[in-house]
């Protein structure tokens, strides 16, 4: 049987999310964000991300029935691609 531990980020929300220790692939598959979590991380509203999905903008997402999930790696890559470097004052 796999050693399981409670994921602290979900503990405060009352969810039961278990991650196996020392299993990078399984841990990567559990690093999914829903729209509310993505909105909270980026300090935006859920409707912002819903509108972006309808327009074909934003990071790649996974949709199963009525559930929408974003891979954390896809979100990080999308944000990095939209990074604007600041210009130095001369």
Task: Write a concise synopsis of the structure shown.
It contains five helices and five strands.
How would you sum up this structure, described in words?
With 90 residues, the chain is an alpha+beta fold. The protein has two domains: 1-27, no CATH class; 31-85, Arc Repressor Mutant, subunit A (Orthogonal Bundle), CATH 1.10.10. Helix content is 42%, strand content 18%. The chain has five helices and five strands. A three-stranded antiparallel sheet has the order 3-5-4. A two-stranded antiparallel sheet has the order 1-2.
The chain-level structural class is alpha+beta
Strand arrangement in the largest pleated sheet: 3-5-4
Shape: globular
Major beta sheet summary: 3 strands, antiparallel
Query: Are there runs of 5+ residues with pLDDT below 50, and where?
Result: 1-17
Helical content band: 40-55%
**At the third CATH level, what is the topology name of the largest domain?**
Arc Repressor Mutant, subunit A
Specify the CATH architecture of the largest domain: Orthogonal Bundle
* Rg, nearest Å: 16 Å
Number of helices: 5
* Element pattern in H and E: EHEHEHHEEH
Domain count, please report it.
2
Task: Quote the distance from N terminus to C terminus.
Answer: 62 Å
Strand fraction: 15-25%
Key features of this structure:
Arc Repressor Mutant, subunit A, two-stranded antiparallel ribbon, 5 helices
Write the layout of secondary structure elements.
Layout: E1 4-6, H1 8-11, E2 18-20, H2 24-29, E3 32-33, H3 35-42, H4 46-55, E4 62-64, E5 67-71, H5 72-81
Antiparallel strand pairs: 1-2, 3-5, 4-5
Helix pairs in contact: 3-4
